[in-house]
Write a structure and sequence with these properties.
The chain has 109 residues and is mainly beta. The protein has helices spanning 40-50, 91-94; strands spanning 4-9, 12-16, 22-28, 53-64, 69-76, 81-88, 98-108. The two termini are 24 Å apart.
Length: 109
């Protein structure tokens, strides 16, 4: 199945599959984004409705992962080129041991 960008939004790209089904996926590392004071899901809902999308389905998933390193790219002035290094990481200490996926299935009104 091939996905293509259907529309760019402030919350990620709405993608269209081969059958024309539209979807939007929003990732965050912070469960607090779903707190009523922040309410990212309500903000995205409002944006979609205001832009003539029908929300067919919406789900929130927890993705557990524990990366042990990050790749860091920097400009090396000695070689006048970019270098990449792997930086060790303790994901649990940084709160990066899980992320949250808010997924929408959409139709254009």
């Amino acid at each position: 199945m091939t996905l293509q960008v259907y529309k760019e939004t402030p919350y990620g790209d709405i993608m269209a599959d081969d059958n024309g089904e539209l979807s939007l996926e929003y990732f965050t590392f912070f469960f607090s984004d779903f707190d009523p004071d922040v309410c990212i899901d309500g903000t995205i809902d409002s944006w979609l409705i205001d832009n003539d999308y029908i929300i067919v389905d919406r789900s929130i998933s927890v993705c557990n992962h524990e990366p042990d390193s990050l790749n860091y790219i920097y400009y090396n002035e000695e070689t006048n080129d970019y270098d990449e290094v792997e930086v060790p990481l303790d994901a649990t200490d940084l709160g990066l041991d899980r992320s949250y996926l808010l997924k929408y299935i959409l139709k254009k009104a």
